[in-house]
Every structure is written in C-alpha cells, then in structure tokens.
Design brief:
Blueprint: H1 2-54, H2 59-89, H3 94-103, H4 105-135, H5 145-154, H6 160-183, H7 191-235, H8 242-273, H9 279-303, H10 312-329, H11 337-367, H12 372-379
Helix pairs in contact: 1-8, 1-9, 1-10, 1-11, 2-3, 2-8, 2-9, 3-4, 4-6, 4-7, 4-8, 4-10, 6-7, 7-8, 10-11, 11-12
C-alpha cells in the first residue's frame, strides 16, 4: 500500500538528491535535503486539507484533481513560479533568468542578492499573514495552549492580523532605510521598494484568501441546493440525479482546491527563498515536495484517517511564521541556510512528537476508562 502510493515520490526523491550532488556537490545535497524535508512537512498540511475536501468528490473529479489539478497548482507554481519571481524582481525574461542561473551563477547570484530585499518583504508579509490568521483563530485543539488561548482572544478584534502585519512592515522598511542611510550604501533607494513589495505581498494574500472564501461559499450554496433537490425528489418519489448534482458541487470543490493549492504552493516557494537563492536547488527541493503532496493526498483519502496527528497543522504554521520572521530579518542581515531550514524541521518534528504523545495518552486514558474531562484536557494541548 505504502510503496504503491509513494513509489513515484521515492523515485523522484532519489533522482533529485543524485542530481543535487552532480550539480553542486554535497553542499547542494544538504540544501536540497533540507528543502525536501521542509516541503514534505509543509505539504502534509496541504495534503490533509486536500484530502478532507477530496473525499467528498466522486471518482471522476478525484482523478481530475490528482492529475490535472496537481500538475497546474503544484508543479506549475513550485517549479515555474520561482523563475517568475526572480525574473520580475531582477527585470529580465524568464528564459534569460533560467539561462543565467545555469550558465553564470555568479551574476545570477548577484542579481538575486540585489533583488532579495523586495523578495523578502513580499514573501515575509505573505507568510506572516498566514501565520497570524492561524494563531488568531480560536480552535478546539490547541498545541501550545498557554500561547494560543490568549492569541485566540486577541483574534476577536477585527482586522488585527492586517494591522500587525502593516506595523511590522513599516518598522522593517524604516529600519532598513535608516541602516542604509547610515552606511551610505546603494540600498537607500530600495527602502521604498521594500515597503511597496511588502504591501504587494499583503494584497496578494488578501486576494487569495478572498477567492478561497468565495469558492467555499459557492461550494456551501451548491451543497445546500443539492440537499434540497434530493429531499424534494424523494418527497415526490423520484430518483435523484446524483451525477448531475454532484457534478456542480464537485466543480466548485475543484476550483476551491485549485486556489488552496496555489496558496500552499506559493508559501512553499516563498519559504524556499529563505533557504536558498539557487534556482536549480530550489526546483529540485520543491519538485520533491510537490510529488509528496499528491502521494500524501491519495494516501489520506484511501486510509480515511486525517486526525491521527492533530498538532502537525500547528507545527506547519509555526514553521511558516518562523520563515516569515527569517525573511524579514534577511532584508538587512544574512542568516545561514542550515539555520533557516532547521527551524522549520524542529518545529514540525516537535508537533509530530506531541501528536504521538497525545495519542498514547488518550489510548491509555481510554484503556483505564477515564472520563471525558481528561480527554478534553488532552485535546486542548499543552
């Protein structure tokens, strides 16, 4: 079962790591490995969300999503989008950016370094909004209860995440401008670019979130109409046209999943810039992660168990928050790639271990016949 589901992912992982060694030696191998682990960990959250919606769709639409949908939203975003980001930020064509990355790594690295403040501001704001919206939402299951409970109370204030993100951006751009002015460097002119890029990242997040909400509302409307039509047909003694009604709802599910996939892929691409600026290594790491999105989604749908490791979603979002901070800090200061990648792996590993401990504790409590109060306490996190 596992080999059948993950066989292609394992094969792509092996090929990707070998290609990394041939391309840049063991240092490149380490970077691709870190990117792969980070992407796979973040992809688990993506796969959980995908599987939760995908299991409601019929076999035809599941196949469409797992083929065309994954190809468009995951491979398209994760393999093509890094090239587009660099091309736009460095003011060059995508083909020219790829040729430069392959043939003149020093010049390419210099162009990316010059463009890094705007990339970091854009990506940092996008990731920061994902993290803030997650921690400000009140959830039944809490991982770090001592932190998440007060944050959930603060989250009741409307638009708080947007306000905090804009304050962080303003402080970052002002600090960057002051630092550049004191050192008399060429970055003084880029302070405005940092501010504009950060605002663009915020706007992008709001647009993606708005589209997701739109499709989600459409999906709920279609499901409600389908339910009413079924009830009416049964009342009249007629057969329900399940394929037609399911087709409408499934179509909106498909569109909604595409938007969600794009947003998940986008934060993966942006997060990769915090680990490396090498477009080849980025493509290898993100490509491996993209394969695991599909495999994990298929596995979760077939197994039907989406709630075994309840804290992984928290760990993935804390990793996103850490990457957001790293990107904003790297506007001025350099942070080693290994440190950047390790932060996310440690956070997600800790959330996985907490999930395992919670499952063991719940099983022990159930075996002893403990009451629901103890189970509720375990479910609420640390």
């Amino acid at each position: 079962m596992v080999l059948k589901t993950f066989g292609w992912s394992f094969a792509v992982t092996a090929l990707g790591l070998v290609a990394a060694v041939l391309f840049g030696g063991w240092t490149a191998f380490g970077i691709v490995a870190i990117l792969s682990v980070l992407e796979i960990s973040l992809s688990f959250d993506n796969a959980v969300v995908n599987a939760g919606i995908l299991k409601k769709m019929n076999a035809f639409w599941q196949k469409i999503f797992l083929t065309i949908g994954i190809l468009i939203a995951v491979f398209g975003m994760r393999l093509v989008f890094p090239v587009v980001i660099v091309a736009v930020s460095a003011s060059m064509g995508p083909i020219e950016a790829v040729k430069l990355a392959l043939n003149d790594k020093d010049q390419y690295q210099q162009l990316v370094t010059d463009a890094h403040p705007s990339i970091a501001a854009f990506g940092g704001m996008f990731l920061l909004m994902i993290f803030l919206d997650f921690v400000f939402e009140d959830r039944d299951i809490k991982w770090l209860g001592w932190l998440e409970r007060p944050l959930a109370k603060l989250g009741k204030v409307d638009m708080l995440s947007v306000c905090i993100a804009l304050i962080v951006l303003l402080v970052s751009s002002m600090t960057f401008a002051k630092h550049a002015h004191q050192h008399g460097g060429t970055h003084a002119d880029k302070a405005e670019t940092v501010l504009i890029s950060g605002v663009a990242g915020l706007i992008t997040y709001l647009i993606v979130g708005g589209l997701s909400s739109y499709f989600e509302n459409k999906l709920e409307e279609e499901e409600e109409r389908e339910h009413e039509a079924e009830e009416e047909a049964r009342a009249k003694g007629k057969q329900v046209s399940v394929i037609q009604l399911s087709g409408k709802a499934a179509f909106f599910m498909f569109l909604y999943l595409e938007v969600l996939d794009a947003s998940f892929s986008f934060d993966g691409v942006i997060g990769a810039f915090a680990v490396t600026n090498d477009i080849v290594l980025m493509a290898l790491g993100l490509g491996i992660g993209a394969m695991y999105v599909r495999s994990l989604t298929v596995y979760l749908v077939r197994q039907g168990t989406l709630d075994d490791y309840v804290y992984l979603e928290h760990g993935a979002h804390y990793a996103i928050g850490a990457l957001a901070v790293v990107l904003l800090v790297t506007i001025q200061y350099e942070i080693h790639e290994l440190i950047t990648g390790s932060i996310g792996v440690i956070l997600i590993g800790a959330s996985f271990w907490s999930s395992v401990r919670r499952n063991r504790a719940l099983a022990a409590a159930e075996g002893k016949g403990s009451g629901s109060d103890e189970k509720a306490e375990l479910s609420s996190g640390v």
